[in-house]
Every structure is written in structure tokens, then in C-alpha cells.
Amino acid sequence: MGKNIAIFASGNGTNAENIIRCFQSRSDSPVVVLVVANRPQAKVLERAENLNVPAVYIPKEKWETGGAVLDLLTRYKVDFIVLAGFLAKVPDMVLHAYPSRIVNIHPSLLPKFGGKGMYGDRVHRAVVEAGERETGITIQYINERYDEGIIIAQYRCPVHPDDTPDDVAARVHALEYEHYPKVIKRLVMSLWALLP
Ligand code: GAR
Known about the structure:
By secondary structure, the protein is an alpha/beta fold. The chain has a domain at 4-106 and 138-154 and 177-193: Formyl transferase, N-terminal domain (Rossmann fold). Strands 3-2-1-4-5-6-7 form a seven-stranded mixed sheet, with helices on one face. Helix 1 crosses helix 7 and helix 6 (120-129) crosses helix 7 (165-193). The chain contains seven helices and seven strands. It has helices at 14-24, 43-50, 60-65, 67-75, 92-97, 120-129, 165-193; strands at 4-9, 31-37, 55-57, 80-83, 102-106, 134-141, 151-158. Helix content is 40%, strand content 21%. Strand 1 (4-9), helix 1 and strand 2 (31-37) form a beta-alpha-beta unit. Glycinamide ribonucleotide binds next to helix 1, strand 5, helix 6 and helix 7.
């Protein structure tokens, strides 16, 4: 087990960029060696390239079997996988090759506002419509089912009565940028420290 991370993402990639920047600024951090996207137009690909991180698009049909994804991870000697706005299923083959080594971030306090189809702005809209007074983020290991993996950490923020979904999104994103890199670093470094 080394300290090489791959980030899987589907869209904008602001979390991916934040994680890459945090880790590039410190020599004692894990290293993001690869970014993988499941959409060719995902902005995350451009963000990664601008930061000199190899960025690869893998088309939908190849995610169904998983062999091509696993080959890529092996080629880049990836030890740990971080999902950051990744909206597809991780193939079972990859899941089994990385036991307890794949983490996800979800923009609500799971089990609230989770499950298939609940992602990004849809979550913030649902939080506002439900009249919640609090929301936050959940960092979890993944398993075969959406948003049901073991929870590693949760962080909270208020929802004010006049908040729009965009207001909530901004507050939640700020929590993500603050905490996700720290939690990833803690997990990767503790796995690494267990090595003989
Ligand atoms: C993040 O808020 C992340 O928590 C969420 O997508 C957003 C991606 O933003 N993930 C999910 O909803 C997963 N169910 P980003 O592309 O700017 O990092």
C-alpha cells in the first residue's frame, strides 16, 4: 500500500481540484496520480490537466464490466480511490479489488436525502423543500448500494428559513472543501502506517 490516489468524477470537479491543490502543496500528503471521468465533457478533466494530473475519460460501456478501469488503476499503481461528484456505479470488480479503500462524499446528512437519483443540486432542492433547519456532508466507504456504505464522518451546517438551494449548495461546498482532503489524508496515511 502506497499513497497513490485516483479521483473518480462526473462533472464540474471543484472538489477534485481542491483535493489535488491541497495535496500538491504539501510533500507529506497522498499523491493524486490519476483522475477518471465517465463523461467526455466533464470539466474535471480540464481541471486535472491544468494541474498536471493525468485525466482519462472512460466510456459508459467500459464501466459496466470494470476490466478497463481496473487495468488503468493498476497501470497507475493506484492504492486508494476517492469519489468526488461521481454519479455512476463503481464496477464490482473494482470494488472487490479495493476493499475499504474507496470513499465517497455525499452533500447531505445521510441517511437523509440519499439514494439513487439524489445528487448535487437535487439534494439541496429537496433539503429546502423539506424545510430542514440543518444539513451537511457525509464521507463514507462505498458498497454495492448507493449511499449505504459505512459512514466515516459527517459535518453539519445550518439552513436558514430564506435560503435558496444555491445558498445551501455554497455552504455545503465550503464544508466539503474544508473537510474532504483532511479525512482522505487521515485514512490514506493510517493505512500506509500499518505497513510492515
Ligand atoms: C458535491 O457536492 C458532491 O458532494 C456531490 O456532487 C457535488 C460535486 O461537485 N456528490 C453527490 O451528490 C454524490 N451522490 P463538484 O463536481 O464541484 O466537486
